[in-house]
Amino acid sequence: MHPSQAVVGSPALGGNLLALLGTALWASSFPATEHLLRGWDPLLLCFARLAGAALCLAFLALATGRGAELRRAPWRDVLYLGALGVAAPVFLLILGQTRADAVTVAVLSTMLPLISAVMGWALDGERPRAPVLAGILLAILGGSLASLAGSGPAAGPRGGEVLVLASMVLWIWYSRAALRRLAGLGDLAISGLTMAAGAAVVGLVGAMALASGFAAPRFDPSPSALVVLAWMSMAAIGLSTLLWFTCARLLGVTVAAIHTNLAPFYVMLIALAFGGRVVPQQVMGAVLVVVGALLAQIASLRRR
Description:
Pfam families: EamA. The protein is mainly α. The chain contains 15 helices and no strands.
């Protein structure tokens, strides 16, 4: 069953509910990555993350009878998108997180809707309406409020922020390009094939880097690390990417990106589960993100 068919109601309602779930899964990848980087080389972790996600999505495609879609894909576009739109941003994100904590990365993710709006305007002439701009600003404010309220003494610029922002720009470009270039494929095929292509590219680069001594064969095979890796690759990356494309198709990339501003709040909730705390400013930030997401959709809902 297609993910959007599991939600009863309008496409907007289904898209928003799936966006909430997808963002929660994606947000869990930040603390998971921070944990795994203690024992893994960034390049090897990037490969393991993408390979696990690709295997998970391939299994879902076969289990749901969508394997035929994988065989009729335009492989040139798949490899192009996998290399530039998946492998590059994922590696930049992981490398950036070696120089920035999980909360800082979550804060920077609040720039996704603004990046999407600017890119849509520059590349496709999609001039954002006033409610969309207001919703983006509210969402950025809410995401920043939720993040900064929980910042610890180690918060602040540490040099990885530029890499994370570059990763966000490439991810938005990839999302728009994939929906256009692979329009004949379903969301499961798009996400699975491009993840597999990205894993293949990183694997090839990683093999050359290991052979030349540029990367160290450093990884943590402990059971706890493998459990975290399995969750991150299959759920936080694989399943969340599938949900992301479904939401982007139902709501548009910019509105789907607005939901990612809840990522800092989810990171705080994960910290709460492991002994942290949630303060009123974080709850207020989450409310502002939700209001911003709804405000940005007012115009399209009225047209419908």
